[in-house]
Design brief:
The protein has eight helices and twelve strands. The protein is α/β, with parallel strands linked by helices and 287 residues long.
């Protein structure tokens, strides 16, 4: 383990990194903080998790990549949201900085979630206090962003370029908390590059073709184009490339029990092969 901050994050593979590939799994955390005073059924709340995603990508470490992953749950504080993506209507007190709630906050899945998946019932009996939100930003959100940026900067300085995969999973069907109509079926994979803004289209197409050739159903930028972590870190003109990969949970686990299914090993192997495929390609791009 290169770095471990208990309850917050871990970094693996940093000391053995040999290619300019950085992965992060911001939503696979399962350690629920003691001050998370929600009123939700824990089994329902766990449907917010990208459970097991960082484990699915472990093979990338052997290929020479480095990986960051969160320990805390995204419903507590979502690091794939901007620090100001908060609806003030759900706060008690005056926030010390301007707030810019996005459509995600409107759906109850902004910086600090306010609704419970999949139907969108209230997550808290009373509004969060400003002090509670600021503590979550300072203790969890800020360190995660700082460590990811450090890994990206370090890789860019060493190799002259950096390729970043933001790793996620998605429900098999859209819930009531989605921008899609409830019940809309999801493909096997959705690749998000902010409509070509966050990475070289060649990177997107390389991953798309690899998965397509293995029989998966793959869609680009629909319904997920990517959020804060690739927006903040993707700048292709500077040799910084960020892409979001969403994998359908039905491929590897039971969405209710969160237990790995018979397809887990096969999907993990696919990700390992993809990492080695990218390693071969990326070695030709470093200086």
């Amino acid at each position: 383990m290169s770095l471990h901050i208990p309850g917050v994050l871990s970094i693996e593979g940093e000391t053995n990194q040999s290619i300019p590939l950085v992965l992060d799994s911001p939503h696979s955390g399962t350690e629920y903080p003691a001050d998370f005073k929600h009123t939700a059924d824990p089994a329902l709340l766990r449907q917010a998790e990208d459970t097991h995603v960082h484990t699915l990508w472990q093979g990338a470490l052997a290929a020479g990549a480095v990986m960051l992953h969160a320990h805390f749950p995204r419903a507590y504080v979502d690091v794939n949201r901007a620090h100001d993506d908060i609806d003030p209507a759900h706060l008690e007190g005056i926030y010390p900085a301007p707030l810019r709630p996005s459509v995600k906050s409107q759906l109850g899945i902004g910086l600090c979630w306010t609704r419970v998946p999949p139907e969108g019932e209230p997550l808290y009996a009373t509004p969060l206090t400003v002090t509670e939100v600021l503590n979550r930003v300072q203790t969890y959100h800020k360190p995660y962003h700082q460590q990811l940026r450090r890994l990206l900067d370090q890789s860019h300085a060493r190799f002259g370029t950096v390729w970043h995969i933001n790793c996620h999973s998605m429900q098999n069907h859209a819930s009531a908390m989605s921008t899609q109509a409830k019940g809309t079926p999801r493909p096997d994979f959705v690749l998000g590059d902010l409509d070509g803004v966050s990475c070289d289209p060649v990177f997107t197409q390389t991953i798309y073709s690899f998965l397509l050739e293995r029989g998966y159903n793959v869609v680009i930028n629909d319904p997920y184009k990517g959020m804060e972590l690739i927006r903040a870190n993707g700048s292709p003109s500077l040799g910084r490339h960020s892409i979001q990969i969403e994998v359908n949970r039905r491929l590897y686990m039971d969405e209710i029990t969160r237990l790995p299914s018979d397809g887990f090993s096969a999907l993990q192997h696919t990700f390992t092969l993809l990492a080695y495929h990218l390693a071969s390609s990326l070695k030709n791009t470093s200086r």
